[in-house]
Design brief:
Elements (H helix, E strand, L loop, with lengths): L1 H25 L3 H9 L3 H6 L5 H8 L1 H8 L4 E8 L2 E8 L12 E2 L5 E6 L17 E5 L2 E6 L4 E4 L10 E8 L4 E8 L4 E9 L7 E10 L6 E4 L2 E8 L4 E8 L5 E5 L5 E9 L2 E6 L7 E8 L2 E8 L2 E5 L2 E4 L1 E5 L5 E4 L2 E2 L4 E6 L4 E6 L7 H4 L5 E2 L1 E6 L8
Parallel strand pairs: 3-26
Antiparallel strand pairs: 1-2, 1-28, 2-4, 5-6, 6-7, 8-9, 9-10, 10-11, 11-13, 12-13, 13-14, 14-15, 16-17, 17-18, 18-19, 20-21, 22-23, 23-25, 24-27, 25-26
Helix pairs in contact: 2-4
Length: about 400
Amino acid sequence: MEQQEEEKKKIKVYQKKRKRSKSGSSSIPLDLVSEILLRLPEKSVVRFRCVSKPWSSITTEPYFINLLKTRSPRLLLCFKANEKLFVSSIPQHRQTFETWNKSHSSSQPMDRYHMEFSKEINYFLPTESVNGLICFQESAKPIVWNPSTGRLLTLPTPNGNWNDLTILLGYDPVEGKHKVICMQFSITCDGCRVLTLEPGQKTWRTVKTHYKHRSDYNTCGRCINGVVYYIAFVNDRCVWVLMSFDVKSEKIDMIELPSSDVHKDVLIAYHGRLACVGRERIKKNGIRLWILEKHKWSSKDFLAPLVHIDKSLTTNFLLKGFTHAGEFIYVESMFHKSAYILFCDPVRTTFRRFELKGFTDDEFVLSNEHGYTLHVFPNHLESQISFT
């Protein structure tokens, strides 16, 4: 009897240990879960939100979202065709020296998808990618697009009398907030309308400035360190200037351009500073970059690509940005079957080519001999941010 009782006690102890073992193996510490999820692709992170409430909570917290953004930025590409938006992203990191002069084909594994587009969007003119988000216009309403999740957020009309908008997107790194800035296209005004992107926020507010100015067809914004820069025309002075909008304080200032000979539609971030590009080529094969620091301009000259198609025709590639790895990005203005991107290293004065093969399998789309407008977003950060 004593032996049987002893055996029963041993069995109970074993069963308890077994339960503890099972419980311990199934309950992974949340800190470890967070570390695992941070090492997964963005799409996998989204899918794993449905595993449990704790997992969903982890992946939607601002802290976790910001950690995801610290991973290597990518070069986002898109073009609109046949009421579809074709989207892709490729690595933009510097290749090793041994492979520097080789062509790199985008037929290698890459993120790509397409989404149906509204018929009301006749001309797709997006903002830059700001901390993972992009804006564009549908009718008189701004649309916020998160390329990582493929989700769209339609904002209310800034003003009932506005039909065409100039849309800028800013991000305040201190408070971690996006703000959409809207002006009436090509109409002189002394202010703008601003909306903060946060849950439940649907109210536009008016921000005034001392400088009456108007946007242009080519007006584009560039957000750097919490300040949105854009080129505008000031009526009182009859001159083009650089406007700055501080995202946190919502204060608007005016900065004189370094020269009248600058592209109004080319603003880039160069080593964390704003830069604009001169129109004239330097010594036939270079460009002049005007760099802003503390409201003062300095200039540098760089090598620029010229691609000869045949003896009588030369194609100028458009400068679209500067990567965190220290390379200029040049693209042709139109996307077609043989399109490619040029990465230029200004230190080595060398180029590498990335062929855009495998962007889309839709042969009907690529049959357009004139091509489609290719939009390029350097240093795009993957983001799981959501405002719904």
